[in-house]
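Researcher: Please generate the 3D structure of the following complex. Treat every line as part of one assembly.
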Amino acid sequence: MSAPPAFRQQLLAAIPRLRRYARSLVYDAATADDLVQSALERALNHWRQFDPKRDLVLWLLAIAHNAFLDSLRRDKHLDVVSPERVADALDRTRSHEPDVGLQIDLRAALARLVPDQRSALLLVIVEQLSYAEAAEVLQVPEGTVMSRVSRARAVLRAWLDGSARANPASGASAKPDLRRVI
Amino acid sequence: MNPQPDFSDTDLSAWLDGEGSAEQRAAVEAHLRSHPDAAAKARLWSADRDALRARFDAVRGEEVPARLTETVLSGRGWASGRWAQAAAVAGLLLAGGAIGSALTWQWQAKQVTAAQAGTAQGWVQRAVYAHSVFTPEPRHAVEVRAQEEHLSRWLTRRIDLPVKLFDLRDEGFELMGGRLLPDATGKSAQLMYENAATKERVTVYLRKPDADAPTAFRYQQQDKLGLFYWVEAGAGYALVGALPKERLLALAQAIYRQGVAPVPAPASGPGR
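Model: Done. Output below.
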């Protein structure tokens, strides 16, 4: 039996949330939507495993997270971010995004985080999950979420500070607008 | 700038995330008041948090790519395709940008077939009339009030159909009551719901369907009134209301869910 209409309707409603999480995890919009698509397919294939008493969005985020980990395993190169690749990926989206400098900095900074830290930080900060909810999504203890978020914050901030020092104000580097710090 | 043994980055981070007990939070706040360096870090971290949120919140407002919507709607054969169809007919999904997609064309084809088959069903029109006649009534909008226990039993006996009193409170609508109505060949029932805040009223018209009644889910707009109607498990449903399509669809969906569920969930829990 295929997934019931009501379930699909809820999936539809959850797409914007999933897209946001995916976009924050991987920097390229098309890659992020691939991730969302594969999460949706998995959800449809395993809809029976969903306990309606639980929160569907959490369940979907967990599926998306696993799909993300699988994609990392499949394409090792996604894990190791080369700065040129980040800049290239971001160049494509820059025109319609305001305040490009800051955003590129943020995303480049996010790319410095190891995946475990990145997903914990994004689930808590961007998705605004509680530590308990993020722990459920990531399948780790709450204390682990707490320390990963804290570590991620420190690394993110250090990278933003460091990039500020490396490129003071005017920015002699080739891409001055890539460096802006809040 | 010695790190405080009793104060760590983790404490600060958890505080920013609204975690921890009241005492823990108070301790962090006290520490921040007396340690400008920690307070400065808190400000930076919270600015980073706001910037991250601002950066990715925009994604939620973006138009969802058609391929994702199609994955959900068509993936693994949606048995009846009914909600997809309803939503598409109501123009809620795939609006713009999706013209030319196989799904859209398929739906359009279905609509044409339905129109050609002459499905301007009389009972649907009666549902609209009944809505127009009774909803403006301040006092006698319903014949039997919702509080009266026998409402469901009475209607069930009269129209020879199990009448469920749908719970639409999650959508903001409270059952006012119902009435019995003449139908072409027998009787039908009307349930009326009201939104206490906005005073909007919607009605659900229930009848025993004709043997050959098409079961497809349909949406129709008649001036200000929108209506969703369908036939399911031996009952014909028409939901009528002067509401935006999205809201009417949400109500129709709730009714559909409760209609096909073996037991209607009365309180329906913490819905989203």
